[in-house]
Amino acid sequence: MLNFDQIQVGDEAELTHLLTRSDVQAFATLTGDFNPLHLDEAFARRTLFRKPVVYGMLSASFISTMIGMLLPGNGALWTGQTLEFLQPAFVGDTLRVVARVKHKSPAMRAVALEVVITNQYGQRLIVGQSTVKVLELKDEEKPVETEATKTVLVTGGSRGIGAATARRLASDGHALVVNYAHAAGEAEGVVAEITQGGGRAIAVQADIAREKDVESLFAAVEKAFGPIQAVVHCAAPASMLRPFDDLDWEAVQQQLEVQLKGAFNCAKAALPRLVEAQSGSLVFIGSIAADGVPPAQQTDYVVAKSALAALARCLAVEYGPKGIRVNVVAPGMTQTDRIAPLPDKAKMLTRMQTPLRRLAEPVDIADVVAFLLSPGARHITGETIRVCGGGVML
Q1: Do 198 and 332 reside in the same domain of the chain?
Q2: Residue 370 is part of a domain; what is its CATH number?
Q3: pLDDT one-digit tens code per residue, 116-132
Q4: Which of 257, 288, 308, 313 could form a disulfide with 392 if both were Cys (CB 3.0 to 4.6 A apart)?
């Protein structure tokens, strides 16, 4: 089959066919048209033709052969035809079918063919115009993700949700790379806990807001465990309640650098590897703060989490056809160091407004991340899964 882009106005193809008595008989049997003009020599001698005439549509049927086998070729769909029968054909004639591209419509992926059928004497028997749609073949379906264990990078894996996620994924048999920016001791502690439990893990320092650091991080991953198969982006800088009047751009920039640019850099490094494997997952830790009415005095944090969710959806759309899944896990208020500065009253109020009447624990979020990396989530992408005890319902 010709590539549609390769077809040009003026392109030609031709075929020939020797008409036989068996062709005529087969056509009559197939169509149920037993007109004696085509089959009975005695009857035909009484006509001006003096011998049986080949069915006009039998001769024209070779246009289908032209379209399906030569121009455009296999998979082309014949959508319209005009025909003018100028002279009859007879058994023993050699048909010559010539098609020429008269018009091409890229928008419709269609071509118009000028068709001429002649006999061995060059006499025109049939002329007409065919319209043909050139079908766009879909890529073969990607293999269903079935691999149970993976090499997983967890950014911000030294504490809180990141550390809980690393431990949880290690319990499923994944090989873990615990990324940290500053907390080396805590990261090594997470690794020690995993390895003592029989798991595989290493700690790697990198500022994921810096492209070169991310390159070195991925090199360390591949040296330790081979190609990366999943990234869980948990890294987030500390934030504090701050009225907009007191907020400077540097605070917003810091959140964007780690949360958004960090995700961007990790995706840039991971996606070529995942595309080559035709499978893999990215999971970003978002926040229900990006939903509905945002919490007061957290503009920097909310802006970064909202942008992170938008990035995930864009990547899911672009890389889904390549076998890559991208999702967001959005916790509600979770018992981590981040909420330590909040007044107890605020925590209690959130707890009482949550249908499940408790704040999330880091392992609650880690369990959902583990599910998204499992074969059971193989048809989930572009989603935000909220882990908030029902605090937000959409």
Answers
A1: yes
A2: 3.40.50.720
A3: 999 999 999 999 999 99
A4: 288
Cα gap 199→24, rounded to integer Å: 76
> What CA–CA distance (Å, rounded) separates 114 from 383?
50
Are 164 and 86 in the same domain? no
143 found inside a domain: no
Residue 350: per-residue pLDDT? 85
Give the pLDDT band of residue 66 (cuts 50, 70, 90): very high
Task: Report the CATH number that the domain containing residue 113 is assigned in CATH.
Answer: 3.10.129.10
pLDDT more than 90, % of the chain: 80
- Indicate whether 297 pLDDT > 90: no
Residues 308-324: what's their mean pLDDT? 95
pTM: 0.66
**Whether 109 and 172 share a structural domain:** no
Sequence-distant (6+) residues with CB within 8 A of 180 are: 156, 157, 158, 186, 187, 203, 204, 205
Boundary residue ending a domain (101, 133, 165): 133
Residue 291 lies in domain: 151-387
Q: Which sequence positions are flagged as catalytic?
A: 301
CA 221 to mean position of chain CA atoms: 26
Answer yes or no: do 128 and 185 share one domain: no
